[in-house]
Amino acid sequence: MEVLHPRCAALDVHKDTVVAGVRIADGGPAKTEVRTFDTTTPGLLALSAWLAEQGVTHVAMEATGIYWRPVWHVLSDGEVTLILANAAHVKNVPGRKTDVADAVWLADLLAHGLIRPSFVPEAATQEMRALLRTRKQLVREQASHVQRLQKTLEDANIKLTSVLTNIMGKSGRAIIEALVDKQADPEALLALVQKGVKAPAEKIKAALTGRVTDRHRFLLRLHLQQIDALDAAIAAIDAEVDRGLDPFRQAVELLRSIPGVSDLTAQVIVSEIGTDMSRFPTAGHLVSWAGLCPRNDESAGKRRSSRLRHGAPGTASPCLPPADRFAMAQDDAGAVRLGRHTQEGQLPASPVPAAATPARTQEGHLRRRSLPPHRRLPHVARRHPLYDLGPDHLRRTSPETHAKRLAQQITKLGFTCTIEPASTGTEVSI
Predict the structure, then answer these.
(1) Across the strands, what pairs with 302?
(2) pLDDT in tens, 89-130
């Protein structure tokens, strides 16, 4: 097999050590040398110096949790080309699992060009991704505290969730703070409810009649403090994201032009996939990388499974809510086309499986099925806003096709339909 990289190296990265295997094949038999280095900064600098001394041009490593990132950051300052490999794609032969064998095996694969590089964004995108993923975790923690607060209210037989949609809204927050301050009179608590609440006053009064103990008040106060602290942390992250958004501001504005995509969703999408769309040859490659399309699992001509695989951890979740809003939209050409295909049995009703099909292009050439917002990214690469063609685009561009489709529907109902154009008087029978 042809050797593409005669001087290459592979790293088997662990928490405390990294095993480096250098493979050199300059016109003769390949020679391999293996050394072990610490993952401390001095150890990684020594590793970088040793690779430079050996004349290594390409270095490959597996994506091992968070441990590969410091190694990547140190080696990226050198002259070598770094390649991050998916561990599932470079498995060794069973029964030969050692750190040295893994490094040698990975170096052999790299030398012959058998490793597919994983997507590693540039430093600015990685920083934005770290901030927004942390924000996502804080939002989840805040939701957990709200659920624990609700559980405490139920334990005290305060049925606040039965009369209020959001217990952390203006009315709910005022009632909970009053309960913490030892206010137990239902009439006094009822006076804190805003006028917009639809539940009857008697029902609200009954829901606010409970048995609140000192333990309940302590837990309610504790959860409120945690929720407020998380609110402050989320606001701090939002401010930090806004300060570092200048390189991505144009891309965020372009993504916001997609129906259903909010400012936060646009920021998350940019932080996950970056702004260079050339790394994804087609929209299908992007959807496959995000894990939003069925995997290939075929044997003997039969598909054994079509379930979605695990893709990029932070890419799919921000795209699904806009996809739901897009599927329910009535004023978007793509949503109307998606709904028609669903009625005709060509696409599933859920927008998530539909995300596996190709996206439309910005120019409006509906060569492919129109789909949820996370699929419609060609306009980002061309650096101009998305222009929505409108729900009546197909009728305006091809009235004959639309008339023929309507005539076919009438024929299916058992009637005879004849189309007669108003301009020429020519009759078309269906």
Answers:
(1) 299
(2) 888 767 678 889 889 999 999 999 999 888 888 889 999 999
Q: How many other CB atoms are found less than 10 A from the CB of residue 136?
A: 18
What secondary structure letter does DSSP report for 60? E
Closest CA relative to residue 129, chosen from 300, 308, 303, 318? 318
User: Residue 338 in contact with residue 369, Cβ under 8 Å?
Assistant: yes
> DSSP alpha helices (H): ranges in 198-329?
201-207, 214-243, 249-256, 263-273, 283-290, 316-328
Tokens of 21: 């295997």
**Count of CB atoms within 10 A of residue 226's CB?**
17
> Where does the pLDDT of residue 273 fall: very low under 50, low under 70, confident under 90, or very high at 90 and above?
confident
Integer Cα distance of 312 and 330 in angstroms: 31
- Smallest CA-to-CA distance from 335 within 348, 323, 344 is with 323
- Tell me whether residue 211 is exposed, middle or buried, using C-beta atoms within 10 angstroms of its C-beta: 0 to 12, 13 to 18, 19 or more: exposed
Q: Looking at the DSSP assignment, which residues form a beta bridge with residue 59?
A: 9, 82
Phi, psi of 353 (to 5 degrees): -65, -30
How far apart are alpha carbons 214 and 233 in whole angstroms? 29
φ/ψ region of 350 (left if φ > 0, alpha if ψ in -120 to 50, else beta) reads: beta
Place of tokens 């996206």: 359
Do the Cβ atoms of 375 and 277 come closer than 8 Å? no
* The two three-digit tokens of residue 411, written as one number: 């024929």
CB 293 within 8 A of CB 355: yes
Residues with Cβ within 8 Å of residue 180, at least 6 apart in sequence: 217, 220, 221, 224
Q: What is the mean pLDDT of residues 163-168?
A: 92
- Name the nearest CA neighbour of 373 among 322, 333, 337, 313: 322
Task: Read off the pTM.
Answer: 0.74
